[in-house]
Amino acid sequence: MSEIDGTSSAHLRGKYAIVGVGETEYTRGSGVTTRALGTTAVRNAVQDAGLSMADVDGMMSYSGNDSTMSPVIAGELGIRLNFHMDVIGGGSSIEALIGIAMGVIEAGMCKTVVIFRAMNGFSQVRIGGTGRGSAGLSGASLFSRGIGLSSAGQMFAQSFMRHMYDYGTTPEQVAHVKVIHSEHASNNPKAYYKQRVTVDDVLGSRMICKPLHLLDCCVETDNGVAIVVTSIDRARDCKHPPAVIQGVVGRCCKPRADMHYQSGPISTVAGHWGKEILWKNAGVGPEDIDVTGAYDAFTFTTMLQLEDYGFCKKGEGGDYVSNGTTRLGGKRPNNTSGGHLCEGYTHGVNMVIENVRQLRGEIDDSCPIGPDGTRQHTHDYSEGGCRQVKDVELTANLGWGTPGIGSALVMGRQ
Q1: What does residue 388 show for φ and ψ, rounded to 5 degrees?
Q2: What is the end-to-end Cα distance of the chain in Å, rounded?
Q3: How many distinct helices (H) and strands (E) make up the chain?
Q4: What is the DSSP string of 146-177?
Q5: Are 190 and 25 in contact (CB under 8 A)?
Q6: 402 φ, ψ to 5°?
């Protein structure tokens, strides 16, 4: 069904699934190494799947900054690998790695893959620059750090400002992304920031890099997170209902990724091209999606992706994120865990974990546990209450590396 340069990936639709998810606590000051964080997260994910370590023979990770490599984590758990890969690449990593996991299993290189991210993103190497050694200018940094664009906020701000100029988008509209994610996080026992905030709180916080206020920016945390990918045939024997992978796009780029503002509108991001792959591969459209997980390194990244993947018309992103659509109880809730703005920063893995749990109907919120040991979801989304969305059939995750690089994933119930 999907034709990309004469090839089709629709034959992979429904053949693979995420069967296990695991994480550590989202903290600041974990007091342990990324080796320990990764080992704990992988163990938790494999146990969640109802598998043994002997069932796992593939491992991948996003290893940027201060992570630990897959063979080391595997050795800690007694896993012998037939395939492993550790990559860098920012927030577009997790969806792309899921696609690679499908490919290597399809190719017969291994049978079950664990994908993890481990980082002391607050207490050790902070992404904004603290703890990072000075390096010479080369490659893409010639066009960024050389002119003072060192942090993500500095590099992305031009896209945000241009969208405001072109379409009349206001900081007040986009502040609703933080407001709504904080509402969701207030119902999430795991979230680092659980306090609900208002639009005035966001706009009243100090300016970091125009138009980004402090509360427009994600939280920095220490954590390990992991997921388990395997074939649908093996998934049927696992502990939980599988989150079936319907379609993936991995690290799709604008015509020029490093100086993306030289090719195409600055306010158009990689999702503009990625959607042509994603929806055809998945066999569905944005109108079919019940829950989204749009990368929220900043409030504006969420808005731009929802817009360019087709959840609203170009230029209408400000209204889409501020009119209640993305709120629990709205038409299409987004980042129901609180995402990177509130739960924890994991380069997108926690948002995939959240959508897996939404599809299972097993969100770990504040609802009571019934006599049968399952959570009795009330669907009362007031503070401290439920965050399970009713009747979830399809979810979409939209990963962001930069305005010029993105990945995405559609999952569904079996």
Answers
A1: -75, 125
A2: 20
A3: 12, 11
A4: GGT--SHHHHHHHHHHHHHHHH---HHHHHHH
A5: yes
A6: -150, 180
Phi-psi region of 191 (alpha: psi -120 to 50; beta: other; left: phi over 0): beta
Interacting residues of 5 by C-beta distance below 8 A, sequence separation 6+: none
Find the catalytic residue in 295, 309, 320, 381.
295
Kindly tell me the sign of the dihedral angle through the C-alpha atoms of 358, 43, 239, 82: positive
pLDDT in tens, 74-123: 999 999 999 999 998 888 999 999 999 999 999 999 999 999 999 999 89
Helices marked H in 149-267: 152-167, 171-185, 199-204, 232-235
87 φ/ψ angles, rounded to the nearest 5 degrees: -125, 165
Is 345 assigned a catalytic role?
yes
Q: Are 56 and 91 in contact (CB under 8 A)?
A: no
Coil, strand or helix at 106: helix
Measured over the CA atoms of residue 256, residue 262, residue 267 and residue 272, the dihedral's sign is negative
Domains, the chain, with CATH or none: 10-125+221-235 (3.40.47.10)
Check 192, 193, 309, 345 and give the catalytic one: 345
pTM score above 0.90? yes
Q: Are 367 and 373 in contact (CB under 8 A)?
A: no
Query: Token digits for 1?
Result: 């069904």
